[in-house]
Write a structure and sequence with these properties.
Layout: E1 3-5, H1 6-11, H2 13-23, E2 27-31, E3 34-39, H3 49-55
Parallel strand pairs: 1-2
Antiparallel strand pairs: 2-3
Length: about 80
């Protein structure tokens, strides 16, 4: 996902909104290449939760957690 600076987003706001609305893209705005804000299309029946969680720091605490399980621990393989 490309991250636009706030000043870039100001100059191309109409284009970014059209990308979100019609192409269903998620647009990131931020500083120094790091996403701080997401512009996402909103539909009452489906929210882009995966995109929001992937771009947020909600699960960043898991990076420090040890990997406790391996493929051999699975009872049934789904993938």
């Amino acid at each position: 996902m490309q991250v636009y600076s706030i000043s870039e987003a100001r100059t191309m706001l109409g284009e970014l909104v059209n990308q979100v609305r019609y192409q269903k893209k998620t647009i990131a705005l931020g500083h120094a290449g790091r996403a701080e804000v997401l512009i996402v299309a909103f539909a009452a029946d489906e929210a882009p939760v995966t995109d929001i969680n992937a771009a947020s720091e909600s699960f960043s605490f898991l990076e420090d957690e040890p990997n406790l399980y391996s493929v051999n621990d699975l009872k049934k393989r789904y993938v």
